[in-house]
Amino acid sequence: MSIDFISLFTAALVAACAPIIARAVPRGLVPETVILLLAGALLGPHMAGVIQATDSITMLSELGLAFLFLLAGYEINPKSLSGTQGKKGLAIWAVSIVLAFAAVYFLTGLSITDIDGIAVAIALTTTALGTLMPILKERKLSDTPVGECILAFGTWGEVCPVLAMALLLTTRTTWQTLLILALFAGLCVIMAVVPSRARKAGHTVYRFLAARRNTTSQTLVRVTVVMLIGLVTVSAVFDLDIVLGAFAAGFVLRYVIPEGDHELESKLEAIGYGFLIPVFFVVSGAKIDLAGVGARPVLLVGFIVMLLLIRAVPIVMALSVGRGKNELSMHNRVTVALYCTTALPIIVAVTSLATKAGAMSQDAAGVLVAAGAITVFLMPLLASLTYRVVDAKPIEAVQEIAQHPSDIRSILHEHLELERMMARQEIAARMATKARAEAGKDVAWEDVAFALQRQSRRKRAMDEMLDFARREYAAHEDELHELGAKAALTREEAAERTAQAAKAFAAHLKDGNWEEERRIAERAVREYRRHMRELGHAAHHEDDGK
């Protein structure tokens, strides 16, 4: 019993410290989830041995997994699954599973009819949507076009592998499995329709539950937990993975409350993210043998590379086909693909089934789980870095450096500033969406966002040019005075010319390609600086000749 409380206390302590550690990392590059997994691995039975995966701790971890997928399922808007992106998401998962089976057959030597081969193929097609949700919330991507695409593709990357596990990783015959899934689906429909109609009709039971939602009874939370545990229990009884039951519970809750319930959601998140979900991640990390992972680096790296090829590449291609007026830029397409390549819970589930069946060694399963844990850190990091690098126009930067190698520092600085400007544009778009919601006006968010961006850009460009004028005049004051004496150019005239240049640039700001405007202005600044240096050198040589 004492080891249970020691393990639980350690996991709770790690959960409390994780946000502080994540906040200390610059730019939030390391998600809390990664810190929880790493701490679990270091404190687990394979390292320090402080955390032990006892039956009690494992049960709490399973509840954390259930809450994780409950909240993930609740976040899904069913309409997004039937839309254009949703249909693409389903089609891309089908392509991914075909590629996964082909890769397993030709590259690993495993049989695609045995449990180990099927488990690896399914693992290569998964998206850890439940794991992604807290990351997306941290980075404020949930309500953006990128976040919506991640949900559309990620949902199918979560649901389809769960269904594939139920159909392919079972000792039952196919028709028995299909019958069980049909009965399970029927149960979910009943659990969704009956409460929904009772709510709409204002049934006495619903009024009773609603009236006591904020009392010590917390009726709506209790009913939700009963539904969650009930569907998870049904999944466990019929040898279906509990992820299926938890995810279905989220869908049912969303159907009953299609408009959402912020108060109920906050309470469920408090239970989940406040306690149970961090315990799940810490315990999952404790199951990773870092020494065993280090002993098989080829399998580790190979699995991650195959994840990128099988999952990320098809998503980028799908988003690049049939783009309309709401198309995503290339960096956003890559961002969506990388986020959707994040995988962990399903990998834990499929490897557990394979090891229990004796088809996969514990060492191999540990490596695959470690690879899934690495993707939780690596893919969001790569998505963030890719976004920044693409926005900074690296190709143009290389070309400019090749033409003017002496200006490498200023060129790099300018392109970093460009990246920051694009980040501010994203923030402006989100502000526009919020402003529209608060105003209650039927105005396209793109129009509001553009207005905000335009104002911000004009002010920022004017400030930058005026500041540039002040800095340049201060830096070259003596030089300008000396040259001005030789060329009959006074300080006042030099200042006036700089001011005129700034004024002309400000007047040049109008609706159009702002990025191109900035690029031209930056090049003009470099040419001005280069010209001033040349004038300085010429004056110096002239003085030496005298």
Termini separation: 93 Å
Radius of gyration over C-alpha positions, nearest whole angstrom: 29 Å
How would you describe the shape? globular
**Number of separate domains:** 2
Structural class: mainly alpha
Supply the number of helical segments.
24
* Total beta strands: 0
Major sheet description: none
Query: Percent of residues in beta strands?
Result: under 5%
Average pLDDT rating: 76
Order of helices and strands: HHHHHHHHHHHHHHHHHHHHHHHH
Counting copies of identical and different chains, the oligomeric state is single chain
The CATH topology of the largest domain is what? Na+/H+ antiporter like fold
The CATH level-2 architecture of the largest domain is identified as Up-down Bundle
Please describe what this structure looks like.
- There is one protein chain.
- Helix 3 (55-75) packs across helix 13 (262-286), helix 8 (145-168) packs parallel to helix 16 (330-339) and helix 16 runs antiparallel to helix 18.
- With 546 residues, the protein is mostly helical.
- Mean pLDDT is 76; it is low at 486-491, 509-514 and 538-543.
- The longest helix has 32 residues, at 408-439.
- It has 24 helices and no strands.
- It has helices at residues 2-24, 32-43, 55-75, 78-82, 84-108, 115-123, 129-138, 145-168, 174-201, 204-211, 219-237, 242-256, 262-286, 290-294, 297-319, 330-339, 345-356, 362-391, 394-403, 408-439, 445-475, 477-486, 491-508, 514-545.
- It folds into 2 domains: 2-391, Up-down Bundle (Na+/H+ antiporter like fold), CATH 1.20.1530; 410-545, no CATH class.
